[in-house]
Amino acid sequence: QKEVEQDPGPLSVPEGAIVSLNCTYSNSAFQYFMWYRQYSRKGPELLMYTYSSGNKEDGRFTAQVDKSSKYISLFIRDSQPSDSATYLCAIYGSNFGNEKLTFGTGTRLTIIP
Amino acid sequence: NAGVMQNPRHLVRRRGQEARLRCSPMKGHSHVYWYRQLPEEGLKFMVYLQKENIIDESGMPKERFSAEFPKEGPSILRIQQVVRGDSAAYFCASSGTTDNQPQHFGDGTRLSIL
Predict the structure, then answer these.
(1) Which residues of B touch A3 (CB under 8 A)?
(2) Mean pLDDT for each 10-residue chunk of chain B (114 residues)?
């Protein structure tokens, strides 16, 4: 079993729709959760960074963490064509400092005008 | 531009040659991480360095690969005697000095082996 599972898509939705992206993880030691957006031929760009269970909102983006189910989500409201990219979830666990990120494989999202 | 800088952006090598990839972290960051991304796969951790120290190299292949982050200058990922399977995008990330800071990525070096 992979440490982080993410549906690779591709996912296509019409402009203005709500997008839901999800990851599950297996190791309960993971405590820090991130979502990155990656455009073609570019590096991952940090979108959201959360620690605790619950929701965190930033503009059109909401990150949701459910540690009891080991399930994390990213919601995009009022989706725009510029949101078309690959979305990567990333997690790590330490209470003791910085360490490596474990990534999902990424979900390729296309917003159709 | 105060972001993570990687160069070169594209690197072509023939089998058996050496590849050297460079990474300058964001200003004020002293933690550097290298990841590799193969086609249709997610990013895989390779190595985590601080100035003059390798903290975690659990993702580095045992042979041909090495990394350093000297006191002065960029971090270097070195691949000796490259093979076709080394073709990938190599990304560098950096984070700040306090604990649990998020990692910020550069735009990567795309290595092609002929």
Answers:
(1) none
(2) 89 98 94 91 92 92 96 96 96 84 93 96
CB atoms within 10 A of CB B64: 15
Output the pLDDT for position A95: 55
DSSP B84: G
CB crowding B16-31: b at 16 or more within 10 Å, else e? eeebebbbbbbeebeb
* Residue A99 touches partner B, C-beta closer than 8 Å: yes
Q: Which residue has the tokens 């990219």?
A: A85
- In A39-78, the residues whose Cβ lies within 8 Å of chain B are 41-46, 49, 51
For the stretch A5-61, pLDDT in tens is: 998 789 999 999 999 999 999 888 888 899 999 999 999 999 998 887 889 999 999
In the 8-state DSSP scheme, what is residue B103?
P
DSSP assignment of chain A: --SEEE----EEEETT--EEEEEEES-TT--EEEEEEE-TTS--EEEEEE-SSEEEEETTEEEEEETTTTEEEEEESS--GGG-EEEEEEEE--SSS----EE---EEEEEE-
According to DSSP, the residues that pair with A76 across neighbouring strands are: A19, A61
Identify whether the C-beta of residue B45 lies closer than 8 Å to the C-beta of residue B91. Answer: no
pLDDT confidence of residue B23: 98
